[in-house]
Design a protein that fits this description.
By secondary structure, the chain is mainly α. The chain is built from 9 helices and no strands. Helix 8 packs antiparallel against helix 9. The N and C termini lie far apart (about 50 Å).
Length: about 180
């Protein structure tokens, strides 16, 4: 129920009463399952993140960035709630931004592998990643909302080009910074 609520109405709609009403459960059951709505929100984020990780795993395993982005686009096209939970809601919710900060280094390392130069914990590298992920978020939100056409492969190719160019800039900036 949490995925449905956050994925369609946003974090602001996620409350103990709204979850219980939607699930047809008592408030007591809610507190037997979750300490509070923050715990539920974290579970919702992890569930959406797990779906994304499963969807992109074959592309990650084969080090095929285009396949990673095409799989992510396919998932978000099929279930726009994933896009809202992982990409839209964290912009407005400080708790979700915290979860994103905790998971981005691992996700970036898995998806981008050797393309990463520097430590994801380095503030300079994190600034570059913020620019990269800002671009990716914008592209995926627009894709999910249907404003970038319907050719998933062309979309994935464009996203791959953008990511590769930004990663190249990050690499060049890191090289200049170290000189």
């Amino acid at each position: 129920m949490g995925v449905e609520i956050v994925g369609t109405q946003g974090v602001s709609a996620l409350g103990m009463r709204s979850v219980c009403r939607a699930a047809g459960l008592s408030q007591r059951f809610f507190y037997e399952s979750f300490a509070d709505t923050d715990v539920l929100l974290h579970a919702v984020y992890r569930a959406a993140l797990s779906r994304l990780q499963q969807a992109v795993a074959p592309g990650v395993a084969s080090d095929d960035l285009h396949a990673v982005f095409e799989a992510a686009a396919r998932l978000m096209e099929a279930d726009p709630r994933v896009c809202r939970i992982l990409l839209v809601e964290p912009v407005a919710d400080v708790r979700l931004r915290g979860y994103v900060r905790e998971t981005i280094p691992t996700l970036a390392t898995a998806a981008l592998g050797d393309r990463i130069v520097g430590s994801p914990g380095d503030p300079s590298v994190r600034m570059h990643f913020s620019a990269l992920f800002g671009a990716l978020i914008s592209l995926f939100v627009e894709w999910t909302e249907g404003s970038l056409g319907t050719d998933r492969s062309a979309f994935a190719s464009h996203v791959t080009t953008v990511a590769t160019q930004l990663m190249s800039e990050i690499s060049s900036a890191e090289t200049r910074r170290r000189s």
